[in-house]
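Attaching the record inline, Q. Sequence:
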Amino acid sequence: MIHNNDDPSDTFYSISSSNETDSDDSFLSLPSLSDDLDAQFCDASKNFNLIHINAQSIPAHFPDMLASFQNKNLHAILVSESWLKPCLPSTSFCLPGFHLIRNDRLSRPGGGVAIYLRSHIPYTVIDFSQQHNSPGAEYFFIEVLFSNTKLLLGVFYNPSLTIDYFLSFEDLLEKFSPLFSHTIIMGDFNTCLLKNDSRTSRFTSNLHILPLSATHAFPNCLPSLLDLILVSSISHVEKFGQCVATAFSYHNLLFLSYKLRPPKAKRKILMRRNFNGIDFESLAVDVSNIDWSGVHDASSIDEKINRFNSLITQLYDKHAPIRPVRLKHLPAPWLTDEVKRLQKKRNIAKAKYRLDPNGTNREKYRKARNRCNRVCRDEHQRHIYKSVIEENDSARVWNFLKSLGVGKQRRDINSQNLSLNLLNQHFSSSVTFDNITKFNTIS
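Structure, as predicted:
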């Protein structure tokens, strides 16, 4: 179910101009969503651990995803209501250590489903819903390989209480589920299993539906069980449940620990020179003592170059030796302690409004949310300016722009379909850009 959590009238302010103070910091002692997930998965490191979240916009809540989903034992994040569009590149919303696999809604705002899967786990896309003008259920199914065991992993989102998706969902399960040793499907089905009505009676499946309490509670509305976990084997379920996820929507986060052992991540090790440890005084002495006569006496240009490179390499090996470097997936450096503190304060304010939806609690939540949003924007922009623009490094600027989807995109071209007239028309009308010298703002 879609509720707009962002006020379009919010005004952007600088963090330095904020005069707001916190009168009560008692909320800092309360556990965060990240703490809840750590507690659930800390003793299940050998299992396949996954969650489902109704995000109601990955772009709007991406800082919360970075802060909440850093658990090293988390292997997959299934997302309903991703709200991604083709114009938004995946590189802008990748979580460290994960592949982003997505199926965007094209015809209307909102919607969309996505799967974040650990980058070291192999997968194959099996099937996904076709985005068209008529509303319908949205889904994404992938095959995940665990040694010799194949798992069908799916995320399912039904956008409306009026859409009849039951037969099509049954057909999907009958088509694909028998082909796999195990099946796990999670999602927002928008069918309340707490009710005993005709819609609930039509929801049938040959999979096991794990018992949950109400997963959705909007202020002044009755709680409902809309988000579900379906599995093929109860005996493989180590643990499951739900957590409040106020940072995202009024839907609970669902978690599951399934007894299949995922492959271990291989640490990436690169051989890099240690330039940070150079003793420049000692380097200067060694450079002054180099005997260059062998370079001058060489009989050919090629020999001169080889001898020169050999002398320089000896200097490198002595003063900046090659060493193994392990690559780490670091969280966003702009996600500061202050941003995380304000995220927790906003979540507490939203939880209070959810329990007691009066005007005072709503206003407190709105102010906490707006302040968190503007501080987060400020920190993000400050990081971009300092690390990309202020360094005056054109390579870093272009790498940053490519991460946003700006610049040349690789395209597959079938040479048999090329027309010489069309090529001539393209190059004769191409626009050239001579000067791009200054970035005033980064959105």
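Confidence is low (pLDDT under 50) at residues 1-24, 410-416, 430-443. The radius of gyration is 27 Å.

More tomorrow.
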